[in-house]
Design a protein that fits this description.
Order of helices and strands: HHH
Strand content: under 5%
Number of strands: 0
Helix content: 55-70%
Shape: elongated
Length: 81
């Protein structure tokens, strides 16, 4: 009973855990970029330069809020172990 079958597939040991972090990051990038574009499109009198700065700021704020506030303080999960 103490020996395990070597031919049994155990997903936790074979599936790399970094894929979940990569999927989370890609999902956050898509959501942050689309939200930033939709938010800045609501403002009318912006030059192209101001529009780009607002997109960058909103995009960065999504990352800041998710990884610093929600992930580390609320969910209590470390970003890197």
């Amino acid at each position: 009973m103490g020996k395990a079958n070597p031919y049994v597939h155990i997903p936790k040991e074979s599936f790399p855990s970094w894929i979940w972090y990569a999927a989370e990051c890609v999902g956050l990038i898509v959501i942050a970029f689309l939200s930033a574009v939709f938010i800045t499109d609501t403002f009318e009198d912006l030059t192209t330069e101001q529009h780009n700065y607002m997109i960058t700021g909103i995009f960065a704020s999504f990352f800041l809020v998710w990884y610093v506030i929600i992930r580390s303080l609320i969910l209590k999960k470390k970003i890197l172990r």
